[in-house]
Amino acid sequence: MKIAVCIKRVPDTEMRFTIAADGKSVDPTGLKYEMSTFDEYAVEVALRLNEQHGPGDVTVVGLGPDGVGEILRKALSMGVDRGVHLTAPEVPFDGRVVAGALAEALTGQGYDLILFGRNATDTGAGVVGAMTAGRLGLPCVTAVSHLEIANGRGTARRELEGATETVEFPLPAVLTIDEGIARGRIPSLKGIMAAKKKPIDTREASLGAPAIVVDRLAPPPDRPPGRIVGEGPDAVPELVALLRDEAKVL
Amino acid sequence: MPTATATTRFTGVDFYDFDRLLGEEERAIRDAVRAWVDEHVMPIIGECYVEGRFPAELIPQMAELGVYGANLPEEYGCAGLNNVAYGLIMQELERGDSGVRSFASVQGALVMYPVYAFGSEEQKRHWLPRLASGEEIGCFGLTEPDYGSNPGGMITTARETADGWLLNGTKMWITNGSQATMAIVWAKTGALDDASSIRGFIVPTDTPGFSARDQKGKLSLRASDTSELHLQDVLVPGDALLPRSGGLKSPLMCLTQARYGIAWGGIGAAMACYDEAVRYAGTRVMFGRPIAQTQIQQVRLADMLTEITKAQFLTLQLGRLKDAGTMTPFQVSLAKRNNINMACECAREARRLLGANGILAEYHSMRHMANLESVYTYEGTHDMHSLILGQEITGLNAF
Amino acid sequence: MAAIFAFAESRDGALRKVALETVTAARRAADATGGGEVHAMVLGGPGIADAAEALGRAGADVVFTVEDAALARYSPEVAAATAAAAIADGDYRAAFFPASAEGRDLAPRVAAALDRSLLADVTEFTFEGDDVVASHPAYAGKAVATLRLSGAPALLSVRPGAVTAVEAPRTPRVEARPPALAPAEARVVVTGLVARGAARLDLAEAPVVVAGGRGLRAAEHFGLVEALADAIGDAAVGATRAVTDDGWRDPADQIGQTGRVVSPDLYIAVGISGAIQHLAGMRSSRVIVAINRDKDAPIFKVADYGIVGDLFDVVPRLTEEIRKLRAG
Predict the structure, then answer these.
(1) Smallest Cβ distance to A242: which of C191, C305, C317?
(2) ipTM summary value
(3) Whole-model pTM?
């Protein structure tokens, strides 16, 4: 199958995370970047589909500044065949603009599947996959946690609140990948060396004007300091009393 | 903004933007091995250590990752990495455990390297891909019960017969010995006082007369097999000889390769201990405040960070020299001596910072502390490296 | 006067709690922008029109009911086309969706159909002239982004639990509408819906979540967590990633950065140390209780109430005390 996977470069939030002096962006000093977790799952899904269904071709598409090349090569080192880097000084917060640029790059390429992560781990909006599908006029299933492809059709599972939904769809289609199918593989050292020989097509992203702008980025409000009610089971009656009378949640 | 941000996974130590001196592949390789260690070594290593078991299930995984002989050429089934990338692999493996790193060091630097450097083309084509894939596991037989720091005195012999070479002798402190399917055995082909007659042989461990026995009662490197090899009238064919090996210099060249990796490994072990110490100090509350807020622990942490940072730059330059082909064995001695001593200090200070918890296998510092005593001693003891450097400085041999 | 659109989510013929939250959000938006009408839309199988009364009680002035046997299950393409057509046809200042599993699927489809931007998964919002300014937790919970969306209609999806449903009763005008796309034409079809752990409330809906971590030491000890949830009654059971990775619980139960994000009234963390990834999934809970034997565990930093102790002693006692309270 010919598969495209759209991947995003996001700050590694495990590392230092500081809000910049402008109060609306992340301070890049000392920041390290990685492929968004769900996008890594999507890459893995693409690779496994082709391992199961015979040879195919997987393209990764990333949008953003120079550093995006590094996460594209990470995907190539995992076994992806080629990359497309849509250059842009930054990734807009407005998913509609991102979807527009991706759709333009993906259209008419004959992909059987276009995969996304469920959401990016930085902005966490989870809108670009479905919006891109809308632009391309393709069927779309979001937050897929299980997937089977056979005879040009797919069956996906989605985890809802308290229930699991089964969805059927025809190919070509756009899917966004949730936890549950596959974790990204660790690239082998040979894979890393091979990645630098694989092609990356670099061209400018055509971004429209965003309607959403970031006014402010702030640390989450501190929770008021809690208290240790006590130690061991003897503290339980007091806890229950506090939950009933003070917090009023029981 | 404190350098020590709370993270759930190991993110290395980088106080001086060291990463900027690394190429993208070098970082990618380090990160891949780091992720593998997190996923496959960290969850089991404490238990393996307590049980005194080498995690053999990791052997094929490391092969798949491509760590064995990773700095040897691709045409022999290896990854063809530069020596800095190779060093970073050793750093990450030893962040997990010195025993795991030792396994990879032996397979790569002490078994694959001599086949590559001293073997015939036929030997290279036969053995290297099999060793890279983990299909064959090697060990390195140089040290003997009475000849440790003085390997030139060895009494293992190889006598040429009509059917091939007949080997006799005993080798001791052999990492991977009982796991190995083949051994590189060093033996004298001439008189016992003639160190120039030392040659290397490839000996399949199922050859009659070859036996290996694990050394018991180790209080260090417990997640690693250390064995004694006995060779009694072991007959190997004529083409078991590594044709380009000759004299004590050959095994010493192998040791230089291994020590280079060990120097990097020491940084990994020290990072693991520092990382654990920082986390622990930040969350352990005593007298109403985290122990990180006490002067004595801050001094400990500052010392560790300083020494790790110095070692990183020293060792990176060593790797760049090795890649340029100008690295000397003396420079390797300095790095091995410095880094392992530094790692021993970090491990001990980290263990102390952890208080009583520090003696539990659930934490890593004491395991590293005990491991590093072996690393301090093997591949040229700390003291021997002092003498190697002393000789290089003064021109006078004090051995 | 521009109106506000609200998508009322239903499942199995019944409104979901988030439907009322969405209408409350829309009501609040209408009141903040001059007191226009709230138009709620509900899709479902025959009989779903009965939901109109409840939507009116929550503040809907108009309820569009879209009844079709083929809509007994969610049909993403039909729902998107029908909601988009309604929004395009009306004069709407804003349209609200829930950021539930269904709403997260639907809202970007509607936005794409209308070629509008979407403020997704917001926790607060205000109207400022032509703009909507909304809060959205980002960067794995390490930051809150304040986003500004210009133009009308503004599309928003609201995090479940971020708005508490309140009554603003009125008798709605009910208007039956046909689906804007014939269900038979839909390419993406939901063919099955299986409830998990039928007796248990869902994580996103339950006012109380009891979650277990590695401290439980083995899968079978989750019985302690289940028993506590049973004693509380309206509680759901969740888990940390370590626990779902180990296969002790279904991956769907995972709370955290790569799992579910919940904000119940009461969150009880049992044997959970409080890794940042887990906190990202629960720190917006109203009241957090932590039970952990390590008094230095990071979970205590976000907990309102903590008990330091062996969960195997504390949890059964808590279950017993709550049973007494419930009985008494």
Answers:
(1) C305
(2) 0.92
(3) 0.87
